[in-house]
Amino acid sequence: MNSAQLSGRDERFLRRYEYDDGWVIAADLPVDDESVDVDIVGATAIVVIDHGNQVSETEFTLPGPGATVDMKNGVLTITGQQ
After folding, report:
1. In this predicted structure, what is the pLDDT of residue 7?
2. CA quadruple 67, 21, 33, 5: dihedral positive or negative?
3. In this predicted structure, what is the pLDDT of residue 45?
4. 45-56 confidence digits (pLDDT tens)
5. Residue 6 pLDDT more than 80?
6. Where are the domains of the chain?
7. What is residue 33's three-state secondary structure?
8. Whether the predicted model's global pTM rises above the 0.85 cut
9. Cα(77)–Cα(58) distance, rounded to whole angstroms?
10. Does position 78 have pLDDT exceeding 90, yes or no?
11. CA gap 62, 40 in Å, rounded
């Protein structure tokens, strides 16, 4: 398993794990699950967070296409196959 961890200027953490048969990206988000909207377009994830009167959007490249998204208890998980 390979892993990487990134932190942006707002200290949100993004972790990437790569396995023989797939990959997982996990992000700890400081908002309610209902405040997060994720769209997957090809191998790009677009994450929109509506936090009261602030809306932030970020996008990043995924290790591959065909990802599934889950949001639970403030943790965004994006999973894909190799």
Report:
1. 47
2. negative
3. 94
4. 999 999 888 999
5. no
6. 2-81
7. helix
8. no
9. 15
10. yes
11. 9
Averaged confidence pLDDT in the chain = 86
Opening angle at CA 39, ends 66 and 50, nearest 5:
150
How is residue 77 written in tokens?
A: 């998980």
Q: Is 59 exposed, middle or buried (0-12, 13-18, 19+ CB in 10 A)?
A: exposed
Least Cα distance to 39 among 50, 26, 30, 48 occurs for 48
Joined tokens for residue 53:
């009167």
Residue 50 CB coordination number (10 Å)? 15
Task: Among 2.30.30.40, 2.60.40.790, 1.10.3720.10, 3.40.50.10350, name the CATH number for the domain at 2-81.
Answer: 2.60.40.790
Query: Is residue 76 a contact partner of residue 60, using CB atoms and an 8 Å limit?
Result: no
3-state secondary structure of 61: strand
